[in-house]
Amino acid sequence: LLSAFRDDFPDFKAYLPLMFTDNYILDFEKQIAEVTHLLNPQMETVALKNTTSLLYSTMDNLIEPINKLTGYLKFTKGAIPVSVKDFGLTSLKQKVRTKDTEGVLKYLRTVINNLQTYREQLAEQGFTDDIIEQFTSAIIPIETENQKQYEIINKRKAIVDNNLEIINNLYTTIIEICNVGKMLYRGKNALKVQNYTFRKLLKKVRNTE
What is the pTM of this model? Predict the structure, then answer.
């Protein structure tokens, strides 16, 4: 919208010179910058990126022990009356792949409980405590980083909620520009009308994303 408005500013200024001064564009740019900072605060963005990276890395590290344990279960040849699926491994692997943190924690606990139950039978096949440790040691970092992620997202939401006036002011300016733009170009230039139709602008943004 800002780009279109800049291009067409002479028309806006000619139509409403007292409203559309050079300061109007400067104020619009300032509003955009303020809202951009609110929605993407640098410190929170970096913190969220770091905690998400650590969270996903910890979950990805479960794939190897999942594969090893799956193999051990197959080699027990019925000594353990639980399938790979019922052991929780199939669902755990799926949740790791889809980065479903709550699902990972749920099925990770299921796997750990079954490991304790059938530890002796698995040990007979060469299963070691090191593999158990790979499962048990993952719970705390996953819970910790998941909680951090939750807190950062909530903090972002609080920042937005506490600054609704700034966001509403930007919205008011956007609607003002759109209304005048449609008035100026309706019946003259269909493409320019689209540039000032809020619904069309939203569609453009979503397609770009």
Answer: 0.62
